[in-house]
């Protein structure tokens, strides 16, 4: 059965004055279920507080907008309070408890992409809240809460009765949350907008890779990632993941055109994408993008910590590794055409500037 690869926007799941939580549904984006991938987005207004929770899925979080604070607790470790800013990537392995807070006027928006192969529902994240109207205190009986935490019945009623909000609350502006420490970011956060560029092509584009070298925790998450910024009218070389990895792409800004070619050389997707769209490229399928005049940027996860890609055009093209005779025979062309084909884009990398 063919799977619809069309890009989709997320939909609101819950929220209120403090902010909202959005998710992509596998019912609308079937590749989420097929690829065991979850995708969601948290948007916090000023003084918005996303209550402590843990998830059934390992994730990579990416700050799309704003500044804020996050609390991260690894199993049997102390809480780390980290400052967040646009471009930050955070690896969240299994068992991590996290909370998120925004004290600024600008909305804090965080993207979550992760592996749902061990989740309760394939293609969806399920969060388990420590507090709130759907937190653990509301599920246990008064006796269990009293005995487990050593409090009397009055305190139990207060603990349970005061928790009326679900997932996100708005704090009073005078409430003082924990202050982040600079050293807490080390090993936990990697800013993709300030990091050294792994690829930088004039008038073409730029790439920053997120892998086990610059953020070791991604090994526990099992995912790699990259931030790609394509210059106006530039093209990304056709390529595919050669280690059976799946690529999940969120368009951060701008717009452009995407084509994906699959089994039997069929074009399985041809569409225009814009900021907010999410789409998934199946394993071994070939994808290429051409952006509009204003450029385009995207954040992708790849379902392996250290992905390997094969490109079909440019200096590192697989075509250039093949002998001339093989190309002549397989393309059924003369030596002159084969030489022309091989020589084009000889010195260019994975991004091609617009035609002059």
UniProtKB/TrEMBL annotation:
Q: Name one GO molecular function term.
A: nutrient reservoir activity
Please state every residue range assigned to the domain named Cupin type-1: 3-157, 195-339
- InterPro entries, from UniProt? 11S_seedstore_pln, Cupin_1, RmlC-like_jellyroll, RmlC_Cupin_sf, Seed_Storage-Functional
Membrane-spanning ranges: none
Q: Which Pfam families match?
A: Cupin_1
Q: Which domain of life is it from?
A: Eukaryota
| Keywords in alphabetical order | Disulfide bond, Seed storage protein, Storage protein
PANTHER family in alphabetical order: CUPIN TYPE-1 DOMAIN-CONTAINING PROTEIN, OS03G0336100 PROTEIN-RELATED
Q: Which family does it belong to?
A: Belongs to the 11S seed storage protein (globulins) family.
This chain belongs to the protein called Cupin type-1 domain-containing protein
Name the source organism: Populus tomentosa (Chinese white poplar)
């Amino acid at each position: 059965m063919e799977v619809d690869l069309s890009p989709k926007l997320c939909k609101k799941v819950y929220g209120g004055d403090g902010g909202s939580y959005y998710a992509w549904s596998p019912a609308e984006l079937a590749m989420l279920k097929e690829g065991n991938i979850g995708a969601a987005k948290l948007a916090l207004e000023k003084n918005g507080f996303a209550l402590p929770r843990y998830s059934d899925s390992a994730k990579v979080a990416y700050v799309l907008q704003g500044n804020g604070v996050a609390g991260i607790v690894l199993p049997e470790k102390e809480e780390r309070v980290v400052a967040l800013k646009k471009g930050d990537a955070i690896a969240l392995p299994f068992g991590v408890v996290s909370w998120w807070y925004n004290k600024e006027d600008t909305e804090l928006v965080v993207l979550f992409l992760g592996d749902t192969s061990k989740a309760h529902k394939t293609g969806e994240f399920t969060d388990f809240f420590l507090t709130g109207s759907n937190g653990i205190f509301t599920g246990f009986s008064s006796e269990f809460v009293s005995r487990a935490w050593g409090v009397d019945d009055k305190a139990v009623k207060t603990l349970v009765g005061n928790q009326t909000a679900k997932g996100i609350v708005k704090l009073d502006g005078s409430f003082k949350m924990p202050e982040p420490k600079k050293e807490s970011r080390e090993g936990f956060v990697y800013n993709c907008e300030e990091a050294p560029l792994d690829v930088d092509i004039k008038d073409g584009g730029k790439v920053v890779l997120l892998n086990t070298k610059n953020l070791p925790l991604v090994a526990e998450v099992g995912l790699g990632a990259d931030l790609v910024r394509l210059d106006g009218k530039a093209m990304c070389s056709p390529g595919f993941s050669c280690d059976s990895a799946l690529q999940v792409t969120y368009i951060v800004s701008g717009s452009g055109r995407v084509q994906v070619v699959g089994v039997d050389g069929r074009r399985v997707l041809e569409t225009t994408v814009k900021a907010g769209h999410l789409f998934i490229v199946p394993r071994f399928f070939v994808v290429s993008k051409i952006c509009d005049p204003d450029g385009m940027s995207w954040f992708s996860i790849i379902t392996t910590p250290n992905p390997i890609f094969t490109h079909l055009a440019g200096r590192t093209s697989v075509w250039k590794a093949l002998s001339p005779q093989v190309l002549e025979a397989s393309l059924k062309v003369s030596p002159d055409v084969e030489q022309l084909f091989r020589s084009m884009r000889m010195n260019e990398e994975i991004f091609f500037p617009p035609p002059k």
